């Protein structure tokens, strides 16, 4: 079935499947998730089957998804890697969290180092520090992490707040051969104000810096205008070749259904030609996470 609404405007006839660059899986019965609380209104466990049901509702077919680790322990990282390895194309590539191991000089990947040493497929490492110092000075081993990722062809992801973006830009400047991806535009559900735009511009000045159009939506009645302002600023600063769609499922399910998140993101973007739309919805993620090109049209969604 052809895509519709805002997605049809973006894709035209060129759609060959979405790569969702940001989903989460977890099982609180198997591994403790430090931030998980009952009042967050989230399921205690979400696995590949739950993800498959969610993406099946998408107005365009989802052919792969990048699973970003929810916690930061080795046991939970191995659990996530097993989910990815045993369930076909979904979720797909795995990005693990960075938890430094300063007492082990050989562990440039921190907590994830044993998995890398064991040959577990890992597409990238995420530096999740929104509660840390603005200049990232409290992150141990950050430059060694970047050097290791660049040398091994992996991606550094960052989960940061707007005032940390200049430090991310400086990090990218010190490591020009590293592919770096800012989650949630470094903004999340905040306002796309001038200070954020200036900070994102500093990141965009680094040619191998990218950003995810993820984690932006909230229940507010004026949400569409706010997300559109953020998305259009990101297109202006980074161009479509350095932007990736991410649903942030199942966190996003507290705001809207999977299909609605796709449609809201599509509506927030400015008009794009087929090449630009393909980059945002699949091409950039496929390149960064080294996904194979689709060999045949994906199965049509039920919508």
Describe the protein in words.
The chain has 303 residues and is an alpha/beta fold. The protein has helices at residues 5-11, 48-55, 74-85, 113-117, 142-152, 165-174, 194-204, 223-238, 258-268, 274-288; strands at 18-23, 26-27, 45-46, 62-68, 94-97, 124-128, 155-159, 179-182, 209-213, 243-245. β4, α3 (74-85) and β5 (94-97) form a beta-alpha-beta unit. The longest helix is centred in the C-terminal third of the chain and has 16 residues, at 223-238.
Characteristic terms for this protein:
303 residues, alpha/beta, disordered N terminus, disordered C terminus, 10 helices, 35% helix, TIM Barrel, two-stranded antiparallel sheet, eight-stranded parallel β-sheet, globular
The CATH architecture assignment turns out to be Alpha-Beta Barrel
H/E topology pattern: HEEEHEHEHEHEHEHEHEHH
What ranges have pLDDT less than 50 throughout 5 or more consecutive residues?
1-7, 295-303
- CA distance, first residue to last residue: 7 Å
The number of helical elements comes to 10
CATH T-level topology: TIM Barrel
Strand content: 5-15%
CATH superfamily: Metal-dependent hydrolases
Helical content (DSSP H or I, runs of 4+): 25-40%
Strand order of the largest sheet: 1-4-5-6-7-8-9-10
Described by the principal axes of the CA atoms, the overall outline is globular
- Estimate the mean pLDDT confidence: 90
> How many runs of DSSP E, i.e. beta strands?
10
Structural class: alpha/beta
Largest β-sheet summary: 8 strands, parallel
| Integer count of domains | 1
Rounded to the nearest angstrom, the radius of gyration is 18 Å
CATH hierarchy, class = Alpha Beta
């Amino acid at each position: 079935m052809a895509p519709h609404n805002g997605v049809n405007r973006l894709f035209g006839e060129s759609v060959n499947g979405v790569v969702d660059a940001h989903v989460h899986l977890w099982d609180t019965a198997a591994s403790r998730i430090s931030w998980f609380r009952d009042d967050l209104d989230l399921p205690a466990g979400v696995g590949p089957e739950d993800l498959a049901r969610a993406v099946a509702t998408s107005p365009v077919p989802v052919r792969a998804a990048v699973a970003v680790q929810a916690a930061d322990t080795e046991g939970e990282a191995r659990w996530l890697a097993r989910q990815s390895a045993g369930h076909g194309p979904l979720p797909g590539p795995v990005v693990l969290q960075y938890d430094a191991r300063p007492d082990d000089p050989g562990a440039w990947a921190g907590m994830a180092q044993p998995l890398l040493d064991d040959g577990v497929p890992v597409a990238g490492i995420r530096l999740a520090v929104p509660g840390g110092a603005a200049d990232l000075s409290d992150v141990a081993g950050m430059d060694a992490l970047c050097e290791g990722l660049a040398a091994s062809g992996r991606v550094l992801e960052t989960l940061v707040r707007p005032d940390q973006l200049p430090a991310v830009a400086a990090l990218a400047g010190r490591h020009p051969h590293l592919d770096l991806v800012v989650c949630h535009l470094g903004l999340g559900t905040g306002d796309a104000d001038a200070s954020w735009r200036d900070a994102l511009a500093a990141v965009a000045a680094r040619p191998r810096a990218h950003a995810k159009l993820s984690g932006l939506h909230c229940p507010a009645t004026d949400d569409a205008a706010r997300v559109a302002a953020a998305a259009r600023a990101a297109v202006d600063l980074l161009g479509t070749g350095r932007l990736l769609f991410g649903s942030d499922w199942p966190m996003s399910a507290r705001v809207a259904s999977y299909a609605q998140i796709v449609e809201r993101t599509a509506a927030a973007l400015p008009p794009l030609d087929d090449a630009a739309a393909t980059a945002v919805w699949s091409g950039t993620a496929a390149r960064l996470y080294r996904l194979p090109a689709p060999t045949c049209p994906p199965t049509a969604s039920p919508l």
